[in-house]
Design goal:
Blueprint (H helix, E strand, L loop, with lengths): L2 E4 L2 E4 L6 H7 L23 E4 L6 E2 L10 E3 L3 H16 L15 H8 L24 E3 L9 H9 L5 E4 L6 E4 L15 H5 L5 E3 L12 E6 L8 E7 L2 E6 L13 H5 L14 E3 L5 H9 L4 E4 L34 E3 L2 H19 L6 E3 L5 H14 L5 E3 L4
Parallel strand pairs: 1-5, 16-17
Antiparallel strand pairs: 1-2, 3-4, 3-5, 6-9, 7-8, 10-11, 11-12, 13-15, 14-15
Amino acid sequence: MPHVTINGHRIDAPHGATILEAARGAGIAIPTLCHHPDLSNVGACRMCVVGVHGARALQTACTTPVTEGMVVDTNTPEAVETRKFVLEMLLTDHPNDCMACEVNGDCELQDLVYDYGVKWPEHGGKRHEWEIDPDPNPFIFIDRNKCILCSRCIRACGERQNRDVWSFAFRGFQTKLVAGADQLMLDAGCESCGQCVAYCPVGALYDKMSLGKGRLSQVKKVRTTCSYCGVGCNFDLNVRDGKIVRVTSTREAPVNGLALCVKGRYGYDYVHHPDRLTRPLVRAKWLRAEMLEENLNNNHWAVMGEAGKRQTTKGDGQAIQPLVEAPIPDGQMVISPDAFIQTDWDTALDVVARKFAQEKASHGGDAFAVLASAKCTNEENFLIAKLTRQLLATNSIDHCARL
């Protein structure tokens, strides 16, 4: 285990560790832009340069391994001036629209400019004017004018997602982030997983569904588990005014880290969809007449219509009122036995339990077959199996992932 000295602190660094890893392990901060702990190191941004005693020039902390007896100074005047110069050069070709930027307050470049007190440079030279959002991908927004060529999206797509969609094309000032051979993202094999967005340190890549919906300071993050499958991915719901406006992944997620599939990251719009069922529907013929009449009169329940495809909006977007037949002269409503009644959960579960008990008494356990779901957790599937074998008295249970 090499012994190194960083800013006067003697540190026992792990074998093979870089200066950056050794410093951060000891609580010593070194600025970075292209580095991410999930990705390979490339030393592209030069923000992490440090002074190493005996070295002829500044060294990149993210790519330089520690050696026995190494003495490092992370804040030499030369290192600080170099970082300021790098930031100034980035700003000469960066849009000055932080006030309107989606990642204002959540931008690593913005934070470093603030930390180093860099003023926006006066620049009369050539600037990029790339087309904004040139790709029809429905999930990922692209603004190459904000790209700092850190290559984090390239490495995330190749090393984490194994798709290798992103790359750099051309050289020098014409260097450009491209998908495939400068193709549309979907044509280049993009899965729309959004990992490139999760790893982007600026606003060059962003979630298209969340544009204009709220920035970091305007949302509340709520940690939850994805409901689409049984893997158990965690992510943060970004909630503003009681509505989900974005999903962001987190390195703290034990199962998935920053990785999410397209459904997990972008499939949240069903939560607020007008067609979403939030209360159970039970056929009128399965409810006791006196209970049905009482709850309808008290507006605790509602008649939603005949069995069939449920609709809540017309073609013109106007809401469809619950379907109830016209009252007869004595004031009593005529409801079809097959009409769907919007009830409460306790009533619906009582109906299910009663019908199960009737079927079991009439035909035995062989009348039942159960298909479990990959969208459930292992614990939930265990309970389904227990319900099937112990209460329904049948071994006819299977799982959709096995079919």
